Protein 1
Amino acid sequence: MRPDAGSASRVRDGVRAAIPLAPGPFVFGLSFGVLAESAGMGAAAAVVMSATTFAGSAQFAAASVLDAGGTVAAAIAAAVFLNARYVAISITVASIFPGGRFRRLAESQLIVDESWALSGRSGRFEWPILVGAGLLLYVLWVGSTALGTAVGGVLDDPDALGLDAAFAALFLALAVPYLRRRRALEAAALAAVITVVLTPVAPAGVPIVAAAAACLLGLRR
Amino acid sequence: MSDVWVVVAVVGVVTVLFKAAGPVFLGRRPLPGRVQSVVELLAPVMLTALVVTQTLGGDGEITVDARVPGVAAAGVAILRGAPIVAAMVVAATVTAFLRVLV
């Protein structure tokens, strides 16, 4: 038996473990494509972003800031702030990646919220599950983004279908699991106030970025 | 390079570095406690700001329109354990329906 045969079948376990989650990333990818198209990003940029950033909420944030007429700097800042959590997440799985630097650099890109959560469900983080689940989610994400840009191109007015509200619901659904902790709830309330107060007076995109300051509540003991 | 491509490139490079932070650069060393508590709050804070702008934002003003009942209905669905996709469908349906009526 080749030394890798065992881990290859474990990677397949990871792929299988992610199948029940598949509809979620598929629909997100589809909606990201639609939003990117209505934000005027263009299909190529949307697909390249899915292939290189591979982090749904940050991509939505950047597209939504651009859609609202925000600046490049505001779009970048919103996405970067959202993805900063990956520093903390990637440290929790740092020791499970085998091989040299380049292999670890490549495989670490398969870390997304869902693959990370699945890989730790046995109580300790498992590399084959993270990689298997990450691969399936990656293919779905990039493929459905491409499909979404095609759909978005033929939609006259996505807002008539209530898609603007659907994107808000998506962000809400992603936020709720965090808000079960009191400290996160307080910080989120402050962020909401900052956003509401700044929206009438600051350029598009700036209120979202300024709201990031609410995370400094984490400095309290 | 157009603005959109600048966003795609910068966000892409930064995200690659963030994801590689543990496995390639920092190893298992945990972040200092206070940095960790700030980083942990970034996702909920930014997502909440996005909910607010996406629900109430308009052309540089706060507007209350058909999105609000749609997102509220989705909120109820989420708290009752509905999957994310179902919450999105609820929000879109309620909002689109109200837009036809009004």
Note: The two ends of chain B are 43 Å apart (CA to CA).
Protein 2
Amino acid sequence: MKRLVQGNEAVFLGALKAGANFFAGYPISPSSEILVLAAEHAARDPDFKFIQSEDELAAANAIIGASLAGAKSFTATSGPGFTLMQEAIGYGHQVEVPTVFVNVQRVGPATGMPTMPAQQDIVQTNYGSSGDYYPLVFYPNSVEECYRYAITAFNAAEESLSPAILLSDAFVGHLNEVVDLDAIAVEVVPRSRPPLGTGKRFFTGLAHDEEGQPRTADAMVYRKWLAKVKTWHEKVAARYSDFEFKGNSSSDTLLISYGIVSRVIAPLASQFALFRPIRIFPMLGPELQECTQGYERIVVIEANDGQYACLVECELKRDVIRVPLLGGRVNLDLAKKGLSEKLEREVS
Amino acid sequence: MFKDLLKLERFPTTWCPGCGLGQIMIQLAMVMDELGLDYTNCVVVSGVGCTGRLAGYMNVDGIYTLHGRTLPVAEAVKLVNPSLKVIVVSGDGDLASIGGNHLLHAARRNPDLTVLCNNNQVYGLTGGQAGPTTPRDTRTVSSPAGAPYDPVNLQNLMKSGAKYFYAKTTVYHQLHLRNCVKEAIAWPGFAFVDITSQCIENNGRRLGFNSAYEMLLHFRKTYNRAAEGAETLEPNQIGIVRKG
């Protein structure tokens, strides 16, 4: 049935569709609708468990415990809460726990501008916890995609046996669009690991061998483990190399944007080629290489000070023009103004 | 046999000779054996620190959480699978300092968890720094002039809720310790067992003890059993206070 659905609501419904039966969270705008929907759902369905935690540290660790116990679990937060959750994200990667973190971004750092939209957690999403790890991260730009990629995030989490992250922003999260969610078919990957109470396993945040035995001073064991984790994350990521590309043979410039910014600058398709990564991490390598070929100038336009641009530069090994949209104002006029300045010509 | 509940193939443990943790683990295994708890119906969750390693030596599914995060993990496990007995074993620093907020709120929510706190009054693994339970004026490597503050009052913290179970015992009082663990596991709510324990290598020697044995004798001399039904335990008493 077609109806008006909000982005955050679509994330929650997508999670349910994926089989989620545990939510722990701490209220924070602009993500709180997800927590409230989870609370309401738990009141109706005794098989769906809900904890309103004392803080984001507890919420993030609770979804890991729930996953080990046999649930499909998730949490939702925004920038400052996501920062507190970083320790659990790293832990989830070390212990190999499938779970989903939803981050509806707002302007930071710190409490920042509650709750104006931003995309300032891009780097934090991939590099925010200690150590090396390779999360699968998706960033939808519509209500329909919020639903679709919530399911994808749960699937990717199960397949990669690690925390997957669904990025959103205050704009996408609070976007209302008419969609028919029932008509969206996304395959659901079942849980893979036997739950707690069935073995004599040791789930530890210490570096460990394949039996779970702590190996805290053995470089070879560690390197072997990290190489294995990296390889299988790359393998899973390859199944989800999602992006959108609109070439433009009359333009020498390609604009890269994602999330809400890609919606806002959509009308520029007649003047520029457009590229939108949906799987934000691991970086889309060959896809970026191929789509950017032939374009003299690459511009990354994003609601932060060049976080993704910097990573694109690394990937392409060429200069990238940055157009930051800062301070929670994301609109076409500002995008045009920024482009005009950086490209030194009038963009209208 | 309680030994079946221990991963003897992983012995010797990482703990120093004389550490109280081995005794706590053996008493826990004995109680589990007595109550029929094994890998099919019981999970052990431990935090970071010397105590954190305990979950890895038990023959059940064990979780070694991040520092301070035993309780949120354990509470979620219990909620997802209420048929599992969930036993948390962690240190005083892990539970009362970095995990202090979780302790406060887990106690308030009163989930059916058993918490064994290895209370050695010091951060042992990191070299003997003062912790939340270090008695005032105690000299440690991070309080060379004596710990400047009074320790956290775990009994009062636990008793701030409408329902509570707080047991105080020591590694010297083995039978009492075992009984406290048993009663805590039977308690249908959040049960906290505060176990005064000895860290000879990174605390005891600086305090003038020559051996773990001397520390245990000190516990014997210091602590007396509270009268049955006592509502409050004095600082030198062992016993159980509870309200259901």
Note: The CA atoms of residues 165 and 187 of chain B lie 8 Å apart.
